[in-house]
Amino acid sequence: MKAPGALQPRFENDTGFFRDLKQRVDAYFDANGLDRRDNPRMYVKTAIILAWFAASYVLLMFVAATWWQATLLSLSLAFAATAVGFSIQHDANHGAYSRSPTVNRLLGNTLDLLGASSYVWHWKHNIFHHTYTNLNGADEDIDLGIFGRLSPSQPRRRIHRLQQFYLWLLYGFLLLKWQFVDDFKNIGQGRIARNRFPRPRRWGLFELIGGKVIFACWAVVLPMVFHPWWAALLLFAGTAFVVAVMTSIVFQLAHCVESSAFPSVPSTGKLPNTWAIHQVETTANFSQHNRLLTWYLGGLNFQIEHHLFPKICHVHYPKLSGIVAAVCAEYGVRYNAHNSLFPAMWSHWRWLREMGRPVARASEAALGQSLPPPRTDGPGPSPATPLA
User: Fold this and answer.
1) CB of 115 within 8 A of CB of 212?
2) HEC profile for 1-35?
3) Where are the alpha helices (DSSP H) in the chain?
4) Per-residue pLDDT of the chain (388 residues; tens, 9 = 90+)
């Protein structure tokens, strides 16, 4: 689906990489008799997460009697809300949850109930981010305005010298900005980054407004009815801060680390890679062997597999990763992966530091290319070698 008037850089035609990859993925599902969607594990997981969210909210509203009980239950609510975002709405809004559009739409609306528009998300995330990943001006997810520099193609300001320290704190305010500013700004402008998109009408507009109203009622108004206004607002802000930090970090580890590419768009509009290779090289995995983290993150630590196959339920990503890595090795496409969470966070910190320095690598900044991969024991990682 294309937006009218969208910025549309063009990719090279597939050279066989994605064709072979799809054939092997299809063969995996056929050989094991598996369905790409409607997985029983996903339904059980959804029930657990929604029950966790509801229990945290009810206990916080009607049971918590001390500040420490309220703090712990607020943290529980934050983790549960983040799990809804990572696992339920994300798969549903990609059409990866079920074969039924009705089920996907219903569960996709959990994003609206968390205060963010699933309509705007569809365009911003599914269409523009998943097509133009890490392309400055086309992918709004890498645009932090004057506060941060994530791409070599973005202008550097003096304040960016310290961004590896202060951005971690600013990440905590991105959810409130998303809920109360960005959705309305995008709709008012009819634009996401430099991409035009149609404003919502009829049911889409009803979902957007209704979701915002319901969110405000359960998250702000109702708590202020049963508790002092200042306590309700404080817990609301604290919960939103925790959700935003976790969500932002997961995205940054997937796209804004040293091994990720940040191509610039040539004046011709023609990019040097095919779409599939572009997705692999602008994306990175982490903690692929951590089953608990994989469960909680909704497979978003397998971001490469998600970008290549966004309509496949995330419960399949661990198995698909071996297939993807093997095909990448055969075609000489580097498969970027960090072995665990903290090395990935450290790589993001180093990337922020590099982007905030004075133009020490002016040629690379001008070209918009990614920096070399992190140090390894050998001369460099093979296409399927995880980065330490």
Assistant:
1) yes
2) CCCCCCCCCEEECCCCHHHHHHHHHHHHHHHHCCC
3) 17-32, 40-62, 67-83, 90-93, 101-108, 110-113, 118-121, 130-131, 163-170, 174-177, 183-189, 203-216, 222-226, 229-255, 275-281, 291-296, 303-308, 317-331, 341-356, 362-367
4) 444 445 578 899 998 999 999 999 999 999 999 999 999 999 999 999 999 999 999 999 999 999 999 999 999 999 999 999 999 999 999 999 999 999 999 999 999 999 999 999 999 999 999 999 999 989 999 999 999 999 999 999 999 999 999 999 999 999 999 999 999 999 999 999 889 999 999 888 999 999 999 999 999 999 999 999 999 999 999 999 999 999 999 999 999 999 999 998 877 788 989 999 999 999 999 999 999 999 999 999 999 999 999 999 999 999 999 999 999 999 999 999 999 999 999 999 999 999 999 875 544 444 444 443 433 333 233 334 334 3
Number of C-alpha atoms within 13 angstroms, CB side, residue 146?
2
CB 81 within 8 A of CB 53: yes
Token digits for 273? 């890679």
Contacts of 325 (CB under 8 A, 6+ apart): 335, 337, 383, 384
Most distant CA pair in the chain: distance in Å?
63
CB atoms within 10 A of CB 378: 7
Q: Is 338 helix (H, G, I), strand (E, B) or coil?
A: strand
Does the predicted TM-score (pTM) go above 0.85?
Answer: yes
CA distance 305 to 319: 10
DSSP label at 96? -
Q: What is the residue extent of each domain of the chain?
A: 58-251
DSSP state of 192: E
Token output for 162: 């310290």
